[in-house]
């Protein structure tokens, strides 16, 4: 091993430590080639580096970049629209004033994030989030699997000629409860409601989103149409909007994984979480598949 300052070629000194094997790379021919480049271009290289450093200091101080005069025609041509094409018009808001960056608009706001597996387990174990019954083996990298409960609601189409959202029909569904060893059969094209086995309770600064499982989606089973969002403060089982997209019946069994729930933090606790007295939250505390309680403009969403 050679020491710093070792000379392997006349006029060339190695400033770093020569470790075993370096000599196979820094051969006499290689060093001679590098020395030739330095003798021919070294002074110019140092001059350009010094000029670049000086220019950077000027730019940092607010100087504007200066482009060569001989390239002015090229730059002007680059800003000219091609024949037959018009420039896109700016949006009205951006034409008036540039939008502020999100950093400026969110100054002092705590960043939100999707909770990881370790955080989910910790928040459930310390009681911040409640999932009952709780099985730690169902936790995924950024979600927790939910199992199918035994409660369903089936639609009776003969009870209403149409669903009028201005006057939603009542008594449109019938509750069904299955035994542990009994399947629930959802036929092709059929839509029904189900419920999770787990009851979930959220604090006022965490929201959740229920998603289908990819493996079930590939079998043609959809577990939610729109009700995939749980507001902060939610407490209850989650109603599933089940739909069979295949041409063959699908058997569902209570206790099998049916969906997954992910969690996200809010930038601040909700001022009126779900279940607040002023909201009239329709589905707070539900423990079974629950039919729609839609009330038009007066309806309050956020429940699952």
Oligomeric organization of the protein chains: single chain
Tell me, rounded to a whole number, the average pLDDT: 81
Number of domains: 2
Helix percent reads 10-25%
Which term fits the overall shape? elongated
| CATH architectural category of the largest domain | Distorted Sandwich
Q: Note the total helix count.
A: 6
**Per DSSP, what share of the residues sits in E-state strands of 2 or more residues?**
25-35%
Structure notes:
The chain is of the alpha+beta class and 304 residues long. It has helices spanning 28-60, 72-78, 92-96, 102-105, 117-125, 214-217, and strands at 6-9, 12-14, 130-132, 139-140, 143-155, 173-177, 184-186, 191-201, 206-212, 221-222, 229-230, 235-244, 250-252, 257-265. The protein folds into two domains: 1-82, no CATH class; 117-298, Deoxyuridine triphosphatase (dUTPase) (Deoxyuridine 5'-Triphosphate Nucleotidohydrolase, Chain A), CATH 2.70.40.10. Strands 3, 4, 5, 6, 8, 9, 10, 11, 12 and 14 form a ten-stranded antiparallel β-sheet that branches. 19% of the residues are buried. Mean pLDDT is 81; it is low at 90-106.
